[in-house]
Every structure is written in structure tokens, then in C-alpha cells.
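Technical appendix A lists one of the benchmark inputs used to test multi-chain prediction within the project. The record comprises two sequence entries:
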Amino acid sequence: MAKKKRQMILNLFLNNIGHHEAAWRHPAAEIDQLNDFSYYRKIAVKAEEAKFDSIFFADRLAVSKEAVQYSAASRLEPLTLLSAISVVTEKIGLIATVSTSFNEPYNLARKFSSIDHLSKGRAGWNIITSGTDEEARNFNYDKIPDHALRYRRSKEFLEVALKLWDSWEEEALIKDKAAGIYADPDKVHRADHKGEFYQVRGPLNVSRSPQGRPVLVQAGSSKDGKKFSAEFAEAVFTAQQTLEEAQIFYEDVKQRAEGFGRNRNEIKILPGICPVIGNTEEEAKEKEYRLHHLANPDHSLSQLSSRIGFDLSGYPLDGPLPELSETGHIRGHQSRTKLIKDLAQRENLTIRQLLHRLAGGRGHYTISGTAEQIANLLEEWFENGAADGFNIMPQLMGEGLDDFIEKVLPILRQKGLFRENYTGDTLREHYGLGYPASQFSTKDNRRSSIEKVHTSDQIG
Amino acid sequence: MAKKKRQMILNLFLNNIGHHEAAWRHPAAEIDQLNDFSYYRKIAVKAEEAKFDSIFFADRLAVSKEAVQYSAASRLEPLTLLSAISVVTEKIGLIATVSTSFNEPYNLARKFSSIDHLSKGRAGWNIITSGTDEEARNFNYDKIPDHALRYRRSKEFLEVALKLWDSWEEEALIKDKAAGIYADPDKVHRADHKGEFYQVRGPLNVSRSPQGRPVLVQAGSSKDGKKFSAEFAEAVFTAQQTLEEAQIFYEDVKQRAEGFGRNRNEIKILPGICPVIGNTEEEAKEKEYRLHHLANPDHSLSQLSSRIGFDLSGYPLDGPLPELSETGHIRGHQSRTKLIKDLAQRENLTIRQLLHRLAGGRGHYTISGTAEQIANLLEEWFENGAADGFNIMPQLMGEGLDDFIEKVLPILRQKGLFRENYTGDTLREHYGLGYPASQFSTKDNRRSSIEKVHTSDQIG
């Protein structure tokens, strides 16, 4: 049999009305449906019909009065949404962001295990530590704990969750009605975790889920973030502004993963791409300009200030970005702040120009062009060591997703880069990831799970 | 128009394979489907077709190795299940137990608001404090905090949640695309809560949900529990062993509610009823006996020990229940422990007989009989100041629910005590509860919401 071409992973990042900060003001924006499940069902079903690997919800655990005034700021809780979507879809993977700073590992492990059961093996968890004071103030803090502390806690949180997911071995269930034995107690294990932040006995009160555990995703690209990814993540969402930077990031994370004794194919790198698609490049640029024109510059500036942890309100919009100090106030999103500074410097942008560059995807790669241009870009990154696939972030959700599905996907399929049909049933199978054996298992399942990676449809 | 007869509330308590502890061993038990959504979908849809007011999931945040061995102990997480069920049903109310001891109010308020949005106004929260060391050990404690402390925390937790649900006023959403104004910031409020246990700024990041907030349910029948119910609960789940005790409880809670300035119709009392239905009383008794016969006495004894906080393992099964000390070790389920002691004493039961009496519903009222006998019992309690409706707890879920729907409901309908069709769309409407105005609202919605109670279909 001919060796199948390596296939691109495509994740739909489902952000509200669209990733452009002014998308909600667009005439086509379905703003009345933001709290209505029919909106999410429609998009999820559409993405599944188009054979996307997964859909993804980000999250943030706070909102300001300014944000509710100037943006479509009501957001349904992601795990609630995933649970609902799980029963109206059959194949597509379901990924949600949940913070390790403001949850209990037992509760979270249970919820993801439940969603993995409900969806028959399609759950994924984007692990974040939460980076803002605004969020911390909803959870008994005055300020967000510092970066290193959050990552230390996050690592322990994940260790506890892994013990809990593994607490029921693969063959623990017996279900012998006659003998009255439901599970083999020798194959159900306590976590007995006692660490710096958590003390959790276990076992989990849900039996092992179809994927063993959710696919572990990570999106921090700071030094701590990359280290965490390299050790634990099976997929990495990342914002990259140039092919070269993306290549460096890709190779860095893969090598770090190898440093932890992992196979480089066990960790998938997915840069974000925020497309606006037109029949001509001019049409696309005009569409994008119309979105920029709908943005409120004062609110954009205030959002940027919050993102980089530096108050820009006194600075002229048509002047340059001021010097940002390297340390101290930047406790939040370290890598994103660096990306924004580098972008402004490299392209010599005024603050106003920078706001436009960030409006479509908050630092993710934006591109307005024809379907061919976008497909070629994805191919270039994919074929040149910058990506295993992409986080697709339509700037305007309805129209932008339709354009991507109808115009870009056929080209990717023609190039042999994206599936015609699902070949697997679980998110792990879509992404080409192995099945993780329980750490308490007496059987040596680990080897066979890695072999499975190499025969999956994702790897050439 | 003729005054409509007061209608009974019927809530289906959906417990795993059934409420009898040995239900999972019954030949008809769908034990393979316990982690499969199709099982829950089927029951929820059936309950909705039968016009139940609501379905309800209890919860417990731990499992022992003994429980996984001898009982069908894998349990999907309730909020995850409610979210999934919300999109495959249209009318039935959706209630889940969540503990105030091991969650953050911001997260929980957000999840219930999201489920209320997804379900278009059908969410209910059964507020519990969690009562066992086994649970505490999954959440960084060695022992469960004492009863009074848990209730103090619970009260503050609820106060925070209420502030968050109320943080978006009824008319906060503007959604003016042209002006770029999504919400009126003067109608979106911070919680600014600083208390003994929580410090939460708010506002919530989801706009006000259809019911304003979930229906608040409480199930503790201790002194602290009743006080909490009287002040906050809109429905009370309770275990009562005799009509007389149920009447005393009913009147006590209603009077306490009036003591908080509430209308007695704003709090609905729903005792649990665990039926086994036969064409004759003998057939029903035989069905029930067959379930008892499937139970494992050692495991039953160990569960009882855990429930009452007293190790019974040394005591002969055919001897009496020993004297239990009143204080100290009973930190958990105070009122249930008292109920069990009273039951054993009143009926002069041996430990084995007590285990049988508890096997079908853990202290809730069990009845094996004909449909007529059961309908008459419900009518008697409902018409004589003991109940506003019932928590229906089939001892064997599939067959028991079918029997109840096909045999008992028609009799209740004939008596004019239970609806033929839904007359409302939300859980509040089904239960005959008013719409709660935001505490931050400048409009006086409170009066009109109470008036609404009196014109609903629940109140004569």
C-alpha cells in the first residue's frame, strides 16, 4: 500500500462571534444567539461535516465593565458547552480551556473524564494557569500569583489529575452481576497524593474513560510554558508572527520533548491562523478593513494595555509603542507581550497600526487573501517544520468559517494535505496520538501505544 | 374560570441503575450503559414525555475501593450530564447536586448560569455542604470541617453566587451594533464581596440567564439545614418515614420561611418516595424481596456504618442496633442518622431488618404495593400538609420508572393531581415559583414576581 501523505491537523477555535474584536458589530454577526445553544450546535455540526479534527473554546474567568460595554462579553462556560456539543456530534474532538489556578484537581479530572465518556473519547483539555489580576480577584486573591508559582502549581495539579485518571486501570471493570462484583479493587488505585499544593486521596469516582484521559493541550509559549509543554502536552497552541519564528519554536518544543524521553511525534504544534478570505486579495483586504473600521480604538488600546500589563492610555495613537520594561509588571502573558513588542519593532508600527494588526487575532497570525494564498501559506508552514497543523481562527465566525470550508479546504484536499473523511473515532486518533496506559497498570501498554502513533493516519 | 386543583410536583431522582443498592445486579439492569449517554437520554426523554417537573442527580465526591467492588460505583459528573441532557430535552427541569465545600462560587455561578442559558431556563441547584471525611480527603483536608462551619461557608457561598447571578440586571443587554454598545455598564454590577471565606469582585462573565438564577434546592434536614432552607431554598428534598413526621417537618419549614418574611408558597417540600410497583401487593413485595436478596449484607453494613458515622462491623446482624452517641463522631449527615435510629427503635428492628428497610432508598420512604396504593399514599401526603410533591426514586430505574409512568401517573391524573401537559417552559414555572429580580435592579420586580406565584398552575 502506498504510504499516505502526512496529514494536517485542523482545529477550529470557536471564539464567540469571531476572533476579530469588532466581529460582533458586523451586519452578519449573530449577536442575539451568543447565549443560545443553537448557534454552537450549528457551528460544531458544520465543522464536523467539514472533518475538522476538533473544536476549541478558550476561556477567561473575569470580565470588566468596560468589556461588557464595548464587546460581546457574555461567554458560556466551556465545559458546559462541550458537554452539550458532545451529544449532538459524533466524531469531532472537543477541547476546552480550564485554569489550574482556580479549580480543584478532583473536580476537574472528574468533569473531563465524564465528557470523555459522554463523547466516547473526544475530550481535550487546554491547560492554562490564568494570568491576570482581574481573574485573581474573582478567586480570593488581590493579585495573580507570580508566573513561576503558577506553573509549579499547574504541574502538581496535572500530576494529581493524571493519578486520578489512571486510578481505574484498563481492565478494572468486571460487572459480574451473579457474583456481585462490579470492579476489581486491586485494579482501582488511590492517588494518595501529598504535595506542595494538593492533598488528594482518590480514587476517582468515574471509571476509566475511552481515551484514558483527555488529550492534553498547552498554550503558553514562555520559557515555563515551553518546558511544561515539552514534558506533558500532546498538542501546543501557539501564536507565531513569521515562518522563521514558528520554525524555531517548533524545533525548540520538539527537542525539549525529546529531552524528556518523548517521541517528537507525540507532541503536535498548532499555530493560530486568523484568515479573512476574498475572491481576490483586494476583496479580502477590504473585508478586513471593514472589520478594523468597526473597532473602537479606545477600547482596543485598553485591551492591549491589559494584555501587556502596561498602561498605554497617555500615548498618542499615531506614535510608536513606548519602551516596555522587561520585568516587574509583566506577570501575566509573558510570551504574548514579547511577541507584541517584537512585532511593533520589526514592522516599525505606530500604536494605531499595531492595534489593527492585533484586532483580528490578539497576536495570532492574521492573513487576508484568496483561498489559494491561505492554502499555500498553510502548506508552506506545514511542509517546512513550522506546524503539524493549525488553530483556525476565523475573524468573523459564520461567513469566515463557511469561506474556509468551501474555499480553502478543497485546495488542501487537492494537495493531499487534509482528510476527506474521518478514519478514527477519538480525538487521539484524529491527532495521531497514542493511547496512554494507566501509570498503575501492571501490563506494559506503553510500548504498544507508541507503535500506534506511527501507524495512525497523521504520520507519514 | 373554575379554580384549578392544586397540582403535585414530581421530580425524578435519577440514581444510576436505581435507588435500591442491589439494583445493578438485577437481570434487567442496564449495567453496561452506566457511562453511556444514551442511557440518560432515554430516561430523561421518557420523564419529559410523562411531564415530570424535573429530573435530579445527586452527587458524592469520593468512592471507596469497597464501593467499587460491590456497587456500580462509576458516576458521571452531574453538571456535565445536565448540560448534555439540556440539549436533548425541551421542557423538563434539570437539577444537580453541587457541594459548596469544594468549589469556587465564581465557577459554580457561571456553570449554572450557562446551563440555564443552554436549557432556556430549566436549571436547578441542590445545595449541599458534603458530609464525609472520605470526600474531604480528595480536597486537601484530613477530616470534613464541622457541621456549623460548613453551613456558615455554604451561606456565604450562596450569597456570593446570588450577587454574581444578579450582577447583570434584567435590562443590561443593549446589543447596539451601530453604536458599538453591547451592554449598559450601569446595569452590570460588581459583587465586591469580602467575607469570612470568599473575596470575589465580579461581575459574572455570562449575562443574566432566563430564570435569573437556578431554582435553589436544599436537602439537609438538620437544624442548620432547615434554617438554611427556610431562608434560601425554593424546594426541599427530604427523607421522611411517616406521615406524621412529614407533616411536622413540612409545617416547621414553612413557618421558618415565613419567619424570614417569605411566602409559604415560595418553598416547596418534596419528600422522597421509593416505589416498587406490582399488579398485586404480593407481586410488589416479591419484587422488592428479590432486590433485597441480591444485596451483599457485609457491604450494606459497611455503608450503613459510614452513613451514621459508627462502625457496626462487630455487631450481630440479627441483634439490635447498638446505642449511638449523640455527638462527636456524627459530623456528617446528622438528620439522616437520627432518622435511622428512630426507625430502628420505632419498629424494633434487628440490624438485618434495618438494612432491608434502608436498601431501597437509604432512609427515604420505601413502598412496595399496587399502583393504587402508591397513588393513594401520594395523595394522602399531598392533601394532608406533608408534601407539595415528591421526589420519585424508583428502586430499579428502567422497569420501576416505566411502571410509575404507566400505572401510577394515570391514577394521579384521574384524581386531578398531576398535569396532562406542561403549561410553562421553565423549571420555575413548573414548580410555581416566581422570577427573582436582580438585587441590584432599580425596578421593583419583586412584588410582581410574587404575584406570579399565585397565578401559576401549581397553586390553587
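Chain A has one domain: 9-166+195-286+363-455. The longest strand of chain A covers residues 268-278. Comparable benchmark entries are summarised in Table A2.
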